[in-house]
Write a structure and sequence with these properties.
The complex is a heterodimer. By secondary structure, chain A is of the alpha+beta class. Chain A contains six helices and five strands; from the N terminus they run ββαβββααααα. Chain A has a five-stranded mixed β-sheet, with helices on both faces. Chain A starts with 11 loop residues before the first strand and ends with a helix. Chain B has 20 helices and 30 strands. Chain B has a seven-stranded mixed β-sheet, with helices on both faces. In chain B, strands 9-17-16-15-10 form a five-stranded mixed β-sheet, with helices on both faces. Chain B has a four-stranded mixed β-sheet with strand order 20-28-29-30, sandwiched between helices. In chain B, α10 packs across α11. The chains are: A alpha+beta, B alpha+beta.
Chain lengths: 189, 789
Amino acid sequence: MTDTTRQALQQQLIGLHVNGEDHEVLTEPRRTLVDVLRHDLRLTGTHVGCEHGICGACTVLLDGSPVRACLMFAAQAEGSEIRTVESLAPGRELSDLQQAFSEHHGLQCGFCTPGFLMLAEGFLAERPEASKEEIREVVASNLCRCTGYQSIVEAIDDCATSRRAALRHRIEGTGEDEEAPCSSATRSR
Amino acid sequence: MTAPPPRTPAEGAWIGASVGRREDPRLLTGRGRFTDDLELPGMLHAQFVRSTVAHATVTSLDLSQVRRVPGVVAAFSAEDLGLADITARLGRPLTEFVPTGMPVLARDRVRYAGEPLAVVIARDAYAAEDGLEAAKVTYETRTPVTSEEQALAPDAPLVHDEAAANTLLDVSMFATEGIDATFDEAPCVVHVETRTGRQNALPLETRGVVASWDHREDQLLLQTSTQVPHQVRTTAARCLGLDERAVRVVVPDMGGGFGQKCVVGREEIAVGAAAMRLERPVKWIEDRKDALSAAFLAREQHYDVRAAFDEEGRILGLDASIVCDMGAYSCYPFTAGIEPLMASAEMPGVYKVPAYRVRARAVTTNKAPTAPYRGVSRPQYVMVMERLFERAARELGLGPTDIRRRNLITEFPYTGVNNVTYDPGSYLESLNLCESSLREEGWYEMKEKAEGEGRHIGIGYSCFSERTGYGSAAFAQRKMEVVPGFDISEARMDTSGALVVTTGTMSHGQSHETTLAQIAADELGLDIAQVRIHQGDTDRITYGWGTFASRSVAIGGSAVRLAAGKLGEKLKVIAASVLETPAEDLELGQGLVRRPRDGRAVTYRELADIAYLKAHLLPKDVEPGLTATASFDALGDGTFSNATHGVVVELHEGTGQVEILRYVCVEDCGVAINPKVVEGQTRGGIAQGIAGALFEQVTYDEQGAPSAVSFMEYKVPTALEIPEVTVHHLETPCAFTETGAKGVGEGGTIGAPAAVLNAVNDALLPTGVELDDTPVTPETVAGALERMR
């Protein structure tokens, strides 16, 4: 043992912007982003499956792009916008992506699920027009031991299709803009 | 007990419907609560000092430097903790089975690389790992035993001194009279020798536990990721010298198990002991390296089998030798006999085999110990049987499906040469439907056309059954000292009319919170929203055997239905006094007890109000409260699900890649409580079967070092390797489970390796090469194709 390991390990103060909130964390420089998210910020929705960047259970969005939170030090995420699974449905309703996973039985034990959700959220934002084959290739970035992947691919594809249809509807549906304020007014009453 | 007639899905509102899962909302929003999500005040973190060598005498273990590492709070060796061994036993003579103890922490001897020697407790997991590096262990190494051949060789070093020839189990069974003459006289005898790779069940959530001493309850609380909470409680109490009531096991959300977590882990006990010593909560989360190299593995088996056939392709006899490499220790409660006993008892499978002889052995080696893994031996023996039929078909000039049709069991109940009685199934129907699906889709023409173009396409099948719903009678036949089988449920209705049903089974992805609620909701005519399932808490649940062997819906689901039904009877008795009508004239449904004659009814809520809050209104002899307990045990040999898998593969020259072009599964699990869940279980199982057939393996070098310590070496298939699977459901309801359901957890994994291997061999037919070992590697395939050039 060298003397350095006997000294109390140095801590540093870092600032993280997670799910729209600012946090200050006093932490050892060696702590990974996923450990700080889970154990310091208590955002336990993000999971740890391998700690070497292969399984993808720890996938979060960093400035919109999916990253492995086990392969980064928390300090490296300073100044970035971080999104975790907890951001997908801030209210009581599931998001369309989460809903699609449930409808297609895209999860069983649910341990890998937050990683797949964030992977899909980031990917569909970047490539809303993705084909099912492209989705399958992206799904191959992460590991799932329960589903055999088919229902995950179908869930993401279904969500992408619905989002495209909704977008087309908004662009093409001329009557939609006139009705929308009316219906939201009705709801608000 | 006379069971009510099984329901068909059409009659029940919830059973048979693909109800959305109750589990989903929390798991999709990150609000699940897995073991590593738990945080207790003052909690410490554990990691294990593990042996770096496969076989040695430990000459010294010095933890003094560990205790000086910043952040380390304590370090304990076996000597410090003084715990009793975990010993699994069979009620068999020493000539058949040798019991061996598994120490919670290794003492003077280590038997595999990765074996825990000491536990380091620190303020966080990082500091605990710092502590590991400061441990000083000296070894006097012994020659490691790293293969089944070496284990059985004369003068082999002994892994356990008490187990001669490194043999933990050696049974010879059945030996039908005249079997030698049958083989001597048979016109066709085929031989298959198969070796299957050592695999990791690989739940994505590794093993883990949070242990804490509860001063108020005077009780150790183990919150642990296990499929068998009560067995962990029993073992922990025995190892720690506590009354069993002084241990409570609670299971958080589980990230899979697949069998690896259906045995008691020594780390669970060691962490419990440390928490008691320190009077502080301690968490242990296994890291992936340990999960790959030191957790329970499975599946490494060697079959040497002959089968005799007549000219028409009817099987006349089966003669099998099976050796299973069980690694360093016997797992609790199943023992190292689990794989060979399963294989030998059930190998004839779905075929009418008139003569059978088998010798099955479990050998111990210096590798990580094994546990039952999804399918337990059936993926292997089904593969061997299906290879035997394919080989006989080739020799006799028969079609591969024709020879199977001539041998499949078609009349039920059928009592086989293995003394097992099979309940009705759709063995022939599933094969016919599977084959016609592939024919109608044009795969046979495609294969022919591709051959002309120099491509290598093959079609393969597997036919099999899967015994599910083993009752205690079936487990007793294995002579387990601890005999699993029954399940107990308690149904409790509260004053608001909502229902809680307990189960001794333990869902780890199988959707029991949904499917068991469907069963209870149907039985009492409730909305599923009014039903909660409680599982995984030894203080809430009297006793249970957890989830393994596809038992949960067949056995656990039956107990749930019986308990709910019994509660329904009590509701009727109370309603009888309110409605002034004999209970037998009343009906349950839609949250009401109703008199059909005039429609007069009383709500469950009103009845609950009487049962709890106005007990003076209860009829004489009716006790207050609305609870009912019932148990279920499958008598006899249990029930058999069945399936046929059909696979089309293309082999690629150069890379040796096996590409799966089409996968069709026709399964029959009896009544499907939730068809979407059945499909999910089937597809997920098939993915694990494909993984075993083509990708995953842990090998060991001569020093006993495991090859796979990360996902770089242990090749888990992704969405690019696992194909889409079409699942067809046939339904032969089970006559004696309460819902008509059989079981579906393991079937996919059982059938896939055989179908894939047969398809590969079909594609290799022109090369003259036949492959019988798994995993089939790209190198092997490329080499075989090379020979044809």
